[in-house]
Write the structure tokens for this entry.
Amino acid sequence: MKKWATLIEEIVWYLLLIALPFQTRHIFGYVGGTGEYAGIYCYATDALVIVLLLLWAMRSIREHHKITRDEPVHFVLLIGGIALLSALFAAAIPLGLFGWAKIVEMLALFLYVYRNIGRFSLRLTYASIFVSGVIQALIGAAQFYLQSSLQLHFLAESPLSPFNSADAVLNTPALKLLRPYGTLPHPNILAMFLIVAFFAGIGIYMKSRTFIARLGIILGMALELFVLLATLSRAELVGFALGGGILLLFIYKEKASFMWKRFYEVVAPILFFAAIIGFALAGVMAHRAGGLAYDNSANLRASYNTWAVRIIEQKSFLGVGPRNFTHYVQTTTDPGLPAGDYQPVHNVYLLVGAELGLSGLIAFLMLLFSSVVNAAKALELKINTPEKLDLALFFILLVILLFTMFFDHYIWTMQQGMLMFWIILGILMGLVKYGLTPSNRA
């Protein structure tokens, strides 16, 4: 029975990683508006998370684990407690309680990954993320080529058209160019997931033993890179370049203890593909980069920042409540705008401060600061093991996420972004604390 329970838990974990980009969900209704951020819903991936947590609880009871409190647990309890108080004083309490439940779910998932990292194969974890990224890249490449959705309703693909004003489209003097979505809610979220999958590809390549496997991984990474560039997601592409630079510096510093030749085997062809893809997309990428000054979305984001700062000044202690940002702005701060203009501020740090107050923001920043500092210290240790590269890859992914959080909100507001962030943070902290030694942890 124990072996079956362990096997089921592992399968659910890998299935969650593969299913992460899919949007299959049930919407129960809307509170205080009709926009995405006013919805109360349950994703299929929520069900997988709940199953994982239940299996963990049952295993802990069965094996008589003691509940131990360390630094991450203290931060989790602090953030969850502040979020609950904020939700109870929110203008739209049902929406606040739903937002609190989502925060608690993600914090619990973080603790699960953090405490149980040694129970899973990191090779299969990399493979699950990478394969899911290849699937998204194939869908995104087809969308980019056809300039329409693929009618993949069973995967909850969005209906897409370059002539739909609600879709992410690059307007060039010659044409309207639809940016690929995959099965995700927005090209920016697809771009971030492809970045995660790309770095997972590096991890699985370094662990692969056969030429066929390595060739397949290289081709998959090239496809992911093409669609990543085709998303034209500015912040994510800058973050990707930043992460790539950090990785090169890390490998150069650690070259005496790493498979230097194996690393060049993956870098050389990827740089070759990047040059070809960059040349092919140079025109549209230049237009996208040059359009920032007159981009209407950039002007709206400035308004969102102003709203957030005003809310933090007015509701400095507990904020307006989880998922109450747009509701509060629409009813109090700036009523009368078109419904589509009410969106969460595109800066996670400002959004957390506006919704959970300065107390919640400080607790969140303390968790992030602790994670970054502890990971950086672990990377400074003179340990000549392949696990150090694993630690570096997830540290770089966290850095990219922290950078992107200055420019978009999906890491705090959207299911796929939340899952990416808390899973990566959990894996990173698990590697720092426990390494990859299998054990039974409560």
Remarks:
- DSSP finds 16 helices and four strands in the chain.
- Strands lie at 25-30, 39-43, 169-171, 176-178.
- Residues 110 and 426 are 5 Å apart (CA to CA).
